[in-house]
């Protein structure tokens, strides 16, 4: 690894011709990082190396971002430090409390787990594993402020930690702060180029922001890395490819999708055949949990395809059956949903879209699942965005037009009396 990094760095100066100022500085800073004292924090090293070359804040920001995407010294630097910080404590007492915390975490007893991890920290203030697990527990409890607080403490000690970077990106993704989520997923990929999570995370965010080309490029890297290790998460990339297909088709970019999957040697694998949906049995309580991924796939399909799609009835029926029986989520349907029904043509009703939106929002935002107002408001927003998209061929009733107008004017909560 060290030898290959040296070779890479040695040829970089010969590529400077024709590069802009920030690119030239990035090459020099990358060389500086490689030769720096590894006992220092990488964040400090990067900052000091950039300041040696420029004091212009605009150039600083551009160089900083470029480094995490292109500098091989960053990944090499991270690999040398991982064994140092991702290890059990030298304190016997700290490890005892840490192990107790892990046991409670596995039991989903997050509050007591936090107490044990905090006791571990009393014996070892630099115990990165304990800090990461405290942050994770607070995230599970929905206390994102505390989660970020402990996450930052971990990153202050070990800025390249893949657990902390993944957790921080997940927090921002949950908050729908996609630029910040993308920032941390990019750092994760830069520090740990063989970890597919950084690329998969970027692909997921790019899908949400409709940066399809960048997303598919990262998805192809994640898919290949999962394939190499025969990872069970390979199924996640296959589902994400289907989501890209659905969204890009809805945005009339199917030709671009086909071009890119051919370029990246990706295949669309329909893990779920819609014709099989009526045969899926959901009677016992334990039958519903395994179907959540299929429900999410169906909901996203329904929300990204036109009203006249041939699979709409069977997909809608499957989502309804799951929502009616799942013991893990409760769905409150009130009289306002009648505003989405086309009384003149039942086939034009937006009720199936609304139900799909409810299912998708609850599965993607489990911390809001018990908040009836948040569930209703966000499901209506998703449904109205669908109805306003001409590509989906929705025949808007006067009630739907009124709701769309209220949403545009920021008055939807008032209109729904929330």
Explain the overall architecture:
The chain is mainly α. Helices cover 66% and strands 0% of the residues. The chain is built from 21 helices and no strands. Helix 2 crosses helix 3, helix 9 packs antiparallel against helix 10 (162-174) and helix 13 runs antiparallel to helix 14 (234-250). The N and C termini lie far apart (58 Å). Mean pLDDT is 83; it is low at 1-19.
Gist of the model:
The chain has helices at residues 2-11, 21-34, 42-53, 57-70, 72-85, 92-106, 110-123, 128-141, 144-157, 162-174, 178-191, 196-209, 212-228, 234-250, 254-263, 292-302, 312-325, 351-364, 372-388, 398-408, 412-415. With 418 residues, the chain is mostly helical.
Q: What layout of secondary structure does this protein have?
A:
Layout lengths: L1 H10 L9 H14 L7 H12 L3 H14 L1 H14 L6 H15 L3 H14 L4 H14 L2 H14 L4 H13 L3 H14 L4 H14 L2 H17 L5 H17 L3 H10 L28 H11 L9 H14 L25 H14 L7 H17 L9 H11 L3 H4 L3
Helix pairs in contact: 2-3, 2-4, 2-5, 6-7, 6-8, 7-8, 8-9, 8-10, 9-10, 10-11, 11-12, 12-13, 12-14, 13-14, 13-15, 14-15, 16-17, 16-18, 17-18, 18-19, 19-20
């Amino acid at each position: 690894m060290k030898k290959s990094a040296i070779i890479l760095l040695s040829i970089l100066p010969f590529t400077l011709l024709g590069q802009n100022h920030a690119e030239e500085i990035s090459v020099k800073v990358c060389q500086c990082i490689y030769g720096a004292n590894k006992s220092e924090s990488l964040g400090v090293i990067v900052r000091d190396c950039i300041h040696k070359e420029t004091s212009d804040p605009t150039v600083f920001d551009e160089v900083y971002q470029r480094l995490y995407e292109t500098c091989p010294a960053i990944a090499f630097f991270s690999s040398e430090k991982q064994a140092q910080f991702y290890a059990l404590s030298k304190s016997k007492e700290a490890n005892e409390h840490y192990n107790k915390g892990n046991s409670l975490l596995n039991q989903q007893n997050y509050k007591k787990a936090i107490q044990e991890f905090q006791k571990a920290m009393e014996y070892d203030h630099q115990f990165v594993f304990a800090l990461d697990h405290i942050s994770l527990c607070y995230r599970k409890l929905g206390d994102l402020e505390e989660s970020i607080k402990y996450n930052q403490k971990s990153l202050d000690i070990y800025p390249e930690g893949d657990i902390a970077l993944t957790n921080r990106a997940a927090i921002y993704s949950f908050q729908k702060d996609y630029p910040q989520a993308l920032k941390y997923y990019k750092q994760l990929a830069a520090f740990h180029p063989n970890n597919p999570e950084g690329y998969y995370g970027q692909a997921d965010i790019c899908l949400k922001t409709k940066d399809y080309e960048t997303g598919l490029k990262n998805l192809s890297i994640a898919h290949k890395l999962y394939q190499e290790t025969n990872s069970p998460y390979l199924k996640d990339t296959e589902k994400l490819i289907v989501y890209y297909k659905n969204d890009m088709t809805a945005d009339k970019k199917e030709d671009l999708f086909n071009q890119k999957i051919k370029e990246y040697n990706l295949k669309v694998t329909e893990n779920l055949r819609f014709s099989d949906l009526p045969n899926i049995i959901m009677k016992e309580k334990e039958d519903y949990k395994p179907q959540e991924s299929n429900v999410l796939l169906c909901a996203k399909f329904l929300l990204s395809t036109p009203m006249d799609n041939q699979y709409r009835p069977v997909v809608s029926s499957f989502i309804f059956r799951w929502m009616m029986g799942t013991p893990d989520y409760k769905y409150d349907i009130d009289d306002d949903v009648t505003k989405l029904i086309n009384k003149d043509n039942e086939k034009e009703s937006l009720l199936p879209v609304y139900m799909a939106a409810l299912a998708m929002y609850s599965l993607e935002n489990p911390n809001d699942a018990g908040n009836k107002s948040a569930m209703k408001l966000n499901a209506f927003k998703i449904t109205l965005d669908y109805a306003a998209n001409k590509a989906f061929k929705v025949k808007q009733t006067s009630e739907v037009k009124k709701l769309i107008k209220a949403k545009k004017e920021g008055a939807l909560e008032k209109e729904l009396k929330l």
